[in-house]
Please model this.
Amino acid sequence: MSKTHQSESAFTASLKDRLRTASTTPQTMHMTPPPSGASKSLEDLLRDDAPDEPASVSTSAPQPVVVASIPAATMDEANVVRKIALQDIVDSPYQPRKRYDETRIQLLGETLRARGQDEAIVVRRLPSGKYELISGHRRTRAARLIGWSEIDARVRPLSDREAELATLTSNESNEELSTYERAKAYQEALDRGFATDQKGIASLFGCSQGRVSQCLSLLQFPTPILDLLEKYPGLLKTRHARVVKEILSKHPHAIDTISAGVEVLIDKPEMDVDELRTVLVKPFEKKRVRTKPPEPRMITDKNGLSAFKVQIREREIVIRVEEGVDVDLASKRAMGALREFAGTLELSKKKIV
Amino acid sequence: MKRKTFKVQAVAKLLGISVDSVRRDSDEAGLEIERQGGVGPKTRLFTIENIYDLAAYRARKYGLVAKAKRILTVYAPKGGVGKTTLSSNIACILSLMGLRVLVIDLDFQANLTISFGYDPELTPDEATATGLLVDDCVNYHFGHLLPQWQQNGQTQSLSAVIKKPFGENGPHLIPSEVTLDRLEALFTVDAIMGKKPELAIARWLADGRSGKNKDLDLSHYDVIMFDAPPAKNQTTRGALLASDFVVAPVSMERYSTKSVSYLAGVLGEMQEEYGKYPQLAILGNFFDDSRVRVAAQVIALTSKYPDAWMDKTVRTSEEFKKVLDDDDGLPLALSRPSSTPADELRATTKELVEKMGVLGSNLKTDALRAA
Model:
C-alpha cells in the first residue's frame, strides 16, 4: 500500500473490489436463501396439526381426474367451469397486490377444505400452455397450502390488454387492498390509458371518485416515503397519510426526518393520528433553553460590606436593602437617580391599548 | 459458592443507569445491602441477587411491561461459534433490563449450566460432604419435563427442575447433564411411531404458556431461550419450530458461514411443512473489522441475508477466556461490567430486544434508562 493515507471511508469502500480481485477462485459457495413471509403462532401450529389426518383423507378422495388434453378456449367455453392443475397456474404480472396475509390465506384454505370451492377462479391460457391468473390469486395460494392438486377455473380468451384491465379491476371488491396498492392499480390504469381521468377510473373500478383521488394523492409523496410504502404497502392509512401530508407541507425540506418518523408505523401500525403527529413533529420542536437568572450584584459600603443586592430580571430591577441601611433614604436616593436619568431620555409615545 | 460483590459504580454500569439512581432506588426498594467493613467509607457492596432485585424493582416502578413474549433459540449447526457464551450473557442482560427470562440448556455437555456456576456431575452425597447445598446439584434436566422421558407418565414439576442461580429476579435456568442426550433417542422412537417428535417442544411450551398446568407455569416469562447443541436433530428442530427467533452466531470464517446456509435450509423446510419458522438473526461473533477474511464473510452473509444480519457484533477478546478461569459462576457480562466485550454484549442484546419487538418502541426504555 502507498504511504499516502487513504481516508477511512474510501478504504472501506474499496474493500469490496479488493476482495473480488484478490480471490483467485470465484466465491461461488452456494448459500440457501432463508424463508420469507409470515409465520404461524405456536398455538396455530398445534391447532392446525391436530385435525390434519382425518380432514385430508376426506378432501383428497372425491377429486376427479382431469383430462390431459385441453382444447383451446373459445368464448362459449368461457363460462364452463373445469379443473386445472395448480402447478400449471402462474401469477398475473398485472396483480397490484404486493403481500398476501399468511393467516388469512390459511383461513381461506380451511374454508376451502371444509366447504369446497364456491366460486371458480378466472384464468387465461398462455401460449406456453400455462394458465395466467386473472382473479383468484388468494384462492390459488390457499389451495396450494392445503395440498390440493387442482382447482375449479373458468378459462377466458383474453388479450394481454384485456387481461391487464381485468386483473387490475377484479381486486377492487375482494379482500381489501391497502390504499397504496389501490393507488398503484389506479395509476396503472391511467398510465395504460384505460381511463383518462379520475372519474373514468371511478366508473371502471366501481368506486367513488373521492376514493380514487384519496388513493392517488398517496403517490404524491416524496420518494423516501414511496420507497417505504413499496416495502410496507399497508403502512399509511388514509388518515395517517393526511397527517404526514400536513407535516410535509409545514416542513418541505425535512423529507428525510419525516420519513424516518413515518417508520415508527412499521412497528406500531395501530398508532392513532394524534400519536403519529406527536412523533412526526417532535424533531421540529425547539428545545427549551432555560436561562439561569443572573446572579445578584452586590453594592458594598466603604469597608466592602454588602449594602445592597441588585437583581436584574427581564424588565425589572429588584434592590434588596441589607440590614442596617435606612430603607427610606435608600429609596429616595434611588428614585432621585432614576429621575435624573429619566430626564435625559425621550421616549416615543406608547400606544394605548 | 462465594461470589464477588459489586460496588455502586459497577451496578450502575450493569443497569445502564446513574450512580445516584442506584443509591436512590436501592434505598427505596428497601434492599438489604452489605456495607464494606473496616475503616474508611462504608461503601455498599451489592450481591448479584441484590442487583437483580433492584432491576426487578425498577421494572415495576417504571411500569416496564413486555409488549410481546418471545421464544428464542440460539443455534448454529456449527460448533464452537460461541452459542453457549452468548446464550448465558444474553440471558443475564435481558434479565438486567427487567425482563423475566427462562433459559433452557439443550446440550448434554451442559456448558450453559456450568456457566451459571453449577457442576452437572456433582452428586448430592459429594455436595453434602464438601459443604455445598443439595440445590447446587443438577438432579433433573429438560427431558424430565417431557412425557416422552417419563414413558408418558407423570412428568417432574417445573419447580423441581428449575434453577435460580441469581435469585428469584435473575434469569431462571433449566439445567442439563450428560443423560440429556437420551432425549434424542426417545424422539427418534416417536418419529418411527409417526408421532411427530418435532412438535413435542412446541406442545410443552404451549401448555406452559397457557398457565393452565400448575406444575408447568411458563406464563410469566417474557423471554424463553433455548441454547441448542450444534447438531441437526429432532431436539434442535423441535426448539426451532417452537421459536419466534433464532440467533445464529457466526465466527466469521467460511465453515460457519456455510452453517448459516444449512440453517436457512432447515427453516425453509419448516415453512413448507408447517407454515411456521423462526425469524433468522445472524450475529457476528469473534468479529474483527480489520481482517479481510472477516470482511469477505460479512459480504457473503449480508448480500444473502440482508435482513437477518445484526448491526452489532461481538469481537474476539481474551476476557472471555479469563472469565472461565474465575470459576465463580458469573458470565462475563456480569463479572466484568466495564469491559469492552460486556459493552458489546449489551449493545447486541439491546438490538435483539428491538428486533424481537419485546418492548415495543424504544422510547419507553430510553426514558426508563434516563431516569
User: Anything to note?
Assistant: Residues 52-75 of chain A have pLDDT under 50 and may be disordered. Chain A touches chain B at residues 15-16, 18-19, 22-23, 27, 29-35, 37, 39-46, 48-49, 102, 106, 145, 264, 267-268 (CB under 8 Å). Residues 327-343 of chain A form the longest helix (17 residues).
